[in-house]
């Protein structure tokens, strides 16, 4: 990882290229090899001579030079003077491997550039860098050298301390961090050998193979639940606590709502209102209400906790919520975006408590036709806190508390869902892995939670509110200009990815119609029904999601392709998503004809929130992987039924039936034959006996080893 003594900066290399070209331009009749050019330039060291040779090769490939005879080149007089030197550098993001080599993914989405471990020059995973491109060699990937780090991706690193008397090293948890951090004894913050800590890089001298760092937080003993969950959060640069200033701001809010505030709001406290959430939920940020109108229609209210009443722009709470961007949901714990005084108390729509809300209220019939809509600040009083399980039982049996009201909600929700699918909405229903934990956070059992009617009921009303709020602000009359607003958008899928996915499905016996948006949505939805319960279900759903574009926040509305909505936003969860809080503020300003927000100030916040959302999803996934590995610790040597969930050149991925604990059967451990990857048909084939391991096949596995630190499980094939 140390930087070469004679390496040049990016600007120096570009100047050097022009200097080499000038040698040929000044001698149009001459022909020179790289040694002669180096001599004319006064270059004597080996590294610079090699650079001259590479530049000449590049100039020849770009037709700036022509070959006079073997090894000698001259200027291409026909057009070289008239043309600019081709681009010799690109900007992109580093994808670092554990070995120290890397690939840079260009900003323009062209072919990745391979970077050898000796040419990464202190760049790390996720950094945005500038790369000097080497001449392209026939039959090889593009290669280059990182010449400038434009933006660091990570501020902090998690790992275990290995110490001696005067110094220590931090061995990072992440497989994408190829070097250890050197920690002077004075920078250990009391950390002991074997403890897990969070450290930052303080400097990285050019000639040093390792960065210098200091410990900023001691997490504790590896393997403890709190330590491991905090490690995952620190790994994604998520703050582990709120500042004393933010906590103090939250503490001073009075529990009682001022009478002056009550008078400003529409009162729904006498209207039937409920919340429906998971059994283990600690915050309740949305409620729904129902009232029969005189004309026989239903007044349906979607009531969202009015976080904007408490969290004002520029406050410490607001700044820290903006930095987090989202709450993080990990196994057994929630890491809130707001201090618990707000998220679990004042802004939580608890049963039997008066609460402040921002509401979307609709006049509807049971066919989900909307006759009128209203938006504004309200007060509610939740009659009942329901769990999804309780509501599901009422839907299935037709019996239970508030059965009539829940039946009306469900009828309208079913119709909303049908209308959505008729317009081309995609039905992505992924299974959720859930855990039953003991008092120390250790997993006792794993089960799969599926979306049922009760989940879909609340989802449809949230989708309705999000869509209609976005339309209310963004869908203006001809003589009006829409103000700056935060949209949740989803672009059309990449045609190449879609075609690749279609071909993949055909090879395993499924078809996808892509002739139109509607036929694609219908075909996707039928596919999800057809694969339900099959061995290929998880793999196909995963690839399908990757084939689609990712949803994100932006002020530029392009609609939501997956939901088939022209206007869509996130209005319904300001406790746990910062964009929703922005939407509340922007909606209020729009309704009261206040000056609009500046687009150039809002868009960067949208970009940051989208990035933090991706990190939160990664953290949740890592926590599930960790708990699955922890659950399997005492099952080494035991056998289970499994399905093949993926194949690679390294081995076969198998997922245990019922728990979705995925592990790898490594090809090197299959000693009955020589196996190779048939990538086109998603299978592993034995060369001599022809035994095939194909995606979706049912197999029997034995648990071989668990690497808890890396969240990895290894299996053996039994039969």
What is the secondary structure topology, with strand pairs?
Elements lengths: L9 H16 L8 H8 L4 H16 L3 E5 L2 E4 L13 E8 L5 E5 L6 E3 L12 E6 L10 E8 L4 E8 L3 E6 L8 E4 L11 E8 L8 E9 L4 H11 L8 H8 L7 H4 L3 E2 L4 E6 L8 E7 L5 E8 L1 H4 L5 H9 L3 E3 L2 E3 L4 H7 L7 E11 L5 E12 L2 E4 H10 L5 H20 L9 E6 L5 E7 L3 H22 L12 E3 L5 H13 L9 H15 L5 H11 L4 E3 L23 H14 L7 H33 L7 E9 L3 E6 L5 E5 L8 E4 L4 E4 L5 E3 L3 E10 L4 E6 L2
Parallel strand pairs: 13-20, 14-21
Antiparallel strand pairs: 1-2, 3-4, 3-6, 4-5, 6-7, 8-9, 8-11, 9-10, 11-12, 14-15, 15-16, 16-19, 17-18, 19-20, 22-23, 24-25, 26-27, 26-32, 27-28, 29-30, 30-31, 32-33
Helix pairs in contact: 1-3, 2-3, 4-17, 11-12, 13-15
Radius of gyration computed on alpha carbons: 30 Å
Q: How can the largest sheet be summarized?
A: 7 strands, mixed
Number of helices, counting only DSSP H or I runs of 4 residues or more:
17
Report the count of strand segments. Answer: 33
Distance between the termini: 45 Å
Which regions are unreliable across 5 or more consecutive residues at pLDDT < 50?
A: 1-6, 79-87
Percent helix among the residues?
25-40%
The rough form would be described as: globular
Spatial strand arrangement across the major sheet: 13-20-19-16-15-14-21
Mean pLDDT equals 89
Q: Which percent range describes the beta-strand content? A: 25-35%
SS-based class: alpha+beta
């Amino acid at each position: 990882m140390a930087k070469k003594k004679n390496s040049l900066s990016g600007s120096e290399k570009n100047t050097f290229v022009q200097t080499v070209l000038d040698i040929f331009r000044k001698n149009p009749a001459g022909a020179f090899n790289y040694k002669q050019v180096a001599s004319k330039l006064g270059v004597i060291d080996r590294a610079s001579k090699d650079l001259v040779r590479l530049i000449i090769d590049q100039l020849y490939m770009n037709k700036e030079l022509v070959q006079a005879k073997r090894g000698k080149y001259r200027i291409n007089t026909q057009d070289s003077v008239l043309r600019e030197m081709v681009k010799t550098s690109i900007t992109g993001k580093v994808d670092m491997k554990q070995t120290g080599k890397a690939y840079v993914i260009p900003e323009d989405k062209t072919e990745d550039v391979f970077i050898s471990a000796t040419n990464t020059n202190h760049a790390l995973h996720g950094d945005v860098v500038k790369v000097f491109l080497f001449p392209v060699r026939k039959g090889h990937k593009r290669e280059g050298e990182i010449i400038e780090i434009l933006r660091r991706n990570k501020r902090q690193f998690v790992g275990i301390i290995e110490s001696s008397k005067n110094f220590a090293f931090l061995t990072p948890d992440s497989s994408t961090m190829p070097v250890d951090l050197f920690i002077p004894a004075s920078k250990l913050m009391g950390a002991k050998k074997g403890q897990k800590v969070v450290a930052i890089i303080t400097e990285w001298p050019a000639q040093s193979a390792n960065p210098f760092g200091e410990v900023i937080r001691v997490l504790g003993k590896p393997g403890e639940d709190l330590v491991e969950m905090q490690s995952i959060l620190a790994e994604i640069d998520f703050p582990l606590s709120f500042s004393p200033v933010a906590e103090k701001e939250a503490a001073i809010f009075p529990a009682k709502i001022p009478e002056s505030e009550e008078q400003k709001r529409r009162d729904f406290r006498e209207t039937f209102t409920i919340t429906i959430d998971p059994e283990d939920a600690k915050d309740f940020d949305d409620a729904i209400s129902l009232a029969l109108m005189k004309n026989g229609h239903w007044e349906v209210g979607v009531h969202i906790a009015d976080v904007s009443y408490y969290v004002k722009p520029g406050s410490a709470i607001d700044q820290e919520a903006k930095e987090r961007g989202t709450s993080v949901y990990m196994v057994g714990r929630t890491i809130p975006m707001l201090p618990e005084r707000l998220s679990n108390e004042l802004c939580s729509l608890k049963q039997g408590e008066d609460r402040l809300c921002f509401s979307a209220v609709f006049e509807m019939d049971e066919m989900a036709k909307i006759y009128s809509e209203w938006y504004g600040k309200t007060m509610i009083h939740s009659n009942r806190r329901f769990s999804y399980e309780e509501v599901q039982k009422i839907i299935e049996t037709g019996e239970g508390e508030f059965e009539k009201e829940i039946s009306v909600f469900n009828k309208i929700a079913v119709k909303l869902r049908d209308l959505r699918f008729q317009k081309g909405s995609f039905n992505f229903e992924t299974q959720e892995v859930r855990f039953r934990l003991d008092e120390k956070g250790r997993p006792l059992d794993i089960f799969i939670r599926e979306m049922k009617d009760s989940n879909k009921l609340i989802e449809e009303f949230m989708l309705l509110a999000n869509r209609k709020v976005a339309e209310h602000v963004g869908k203006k009359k001809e003589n009006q200009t829409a103000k700056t607003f935060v949209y949740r958008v989803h672009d059309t899928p990449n045609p190449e990815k879609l075609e690749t996915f279609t071909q993949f499905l055909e090879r395993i016996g499924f078809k996808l119609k892509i002739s139109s948006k509607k036929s694609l949505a219908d075909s996707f939805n039928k596919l999800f029904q057809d694969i339900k319960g099959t061995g290929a279900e998880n793999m196909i759903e995963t690839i399908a999601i990757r084939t689609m574009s990712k949803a994100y926040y932006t002020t530029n509305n392009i609609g939501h392709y997956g939901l088939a909505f022209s206007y869509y936003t996130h209005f319904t969860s300001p406790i746990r998503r910062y964009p929703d809080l922005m939407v509340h503020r922007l909606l209020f300003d729009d309704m009261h004809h206040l000056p609009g927000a500046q687009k150039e100030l809002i868009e960067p916040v949208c970009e940051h929130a989208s990035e933090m959302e991706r990190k939160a999803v990664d953290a949740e996934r890592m926590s599930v992987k960790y708990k699955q590995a922890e659950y399997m610790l005492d099952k080494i040597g035991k056998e289970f039924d499994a399905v093949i969930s993926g194949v690679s050149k390294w081995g076969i991925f198998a997922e245990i039936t019922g728990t979705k604990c995925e592990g790898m059967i490594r090809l090197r451990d299959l000693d009955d034959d020589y196996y190779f990857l048939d990538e086109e048909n998603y299978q592993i084939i034995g060369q001599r006996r022809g035994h095939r391991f194909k995606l979706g096949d049912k197999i029997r596995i034995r648990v071989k080893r668990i690497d808890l630190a890396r969240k990895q499980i290894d299996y053996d094939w039994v039969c």
